[in-house]
Amino acid sequence: MKLQVIKGDITQLQVDAIVNAANTRLMGGGGVDGAIHRAGGPVIMDECRQIREQQGGCPTGEAVITSSGLLAAKKLIHTVGPVWQGGNTGEKELLKACYINSLKLAEANKLKTIAFPNISTGVYGYPKVEAAKLAINTVKNYRSESVSLVIFVCFDEENHRLYQHLLDQ
């Protein structure tokens, strides 16, 4: 599996799956989540509403899949990252689970290319360096039958430099 980092807008990518940093109620919100819902249109919210009705939302660390609405990507994987509370309440395991469960959904749907945002590093407050190291190591150690390319999409220059540095090591 090839790993790549780019700086840009995740909503513009033509990949098999974009990962959305969602909230547990799958209600849309700010940051990446809000941008994805705005760009993808109302069909995404309709499908999220159906998931809420069936299973009550999406627990932290888990992932669900929907269509991508108006996005160029084929599918949208919603995962809920942990809110940083100092690092002693299972945040590391939950963030790792976000990446693993998203990759498992991609495999189950025979998707080859997947793009991840910087999960939990915005309003959820996860320290960027720790989150980047965990994301890269988790994906590097994941063995996939179908996923051939993982793109880490950084919206800001700080995360882009950080991810690029870590991938170059």
Task: Explain how this protein is built.
The protein contains five helices and six strands. With 169 residues, it is of the alpha/beta class. The chain has a single domain, classed as 3-Layer(aba) Sandwich (Leucine Aminopeptidase, subunit E, domain 1), CATH 3.40.220.10. The chain has a six-stranded mixed sheet, with helices on both faces. α4 (128-141) links the parallel β5 and β6 (149-154). The radius of gyration is 14 Å and the shape is globular. The two termini are 17 Å apart. The model has no long low-confidence stretch (mean pLDDT 97).
| CATH classification, class level | Alpha Beta
Report the sheet with the most strands, covering strand number, pairing sense and barrel closure.
6 strands, mixed
Sequence stretches where pLDDT stays below 50 over 5 or more residues = none
Enumerate the strands of the largest sheet in spatial order, edge to edge or round the barrel: 1-6-5-2-4-3
- Report the β-strand fraction as a percent range: 15-25%
Features:
single chain, 169 residues, alpha/beta, Leucine Aminopeptidase, subunit E, domain 1, six-stranded mixed sheet, 40% helix, globular
Task: Spell out the blueprint of helices and strands.
Blueprint: E1 2-7, E2 17-22, H1 31-40, H2 42-55, E3 63-67, E4 75-80, H3 91-108, E5 113-116, H4 128-141, E6 149-154, H5 157-168
Parallel strand pairs: 1-6, 2-4, 2-5, 5-6
Antiparallel strand pairs: 3-4
Helix pairs in contact: 3-4, 4-5
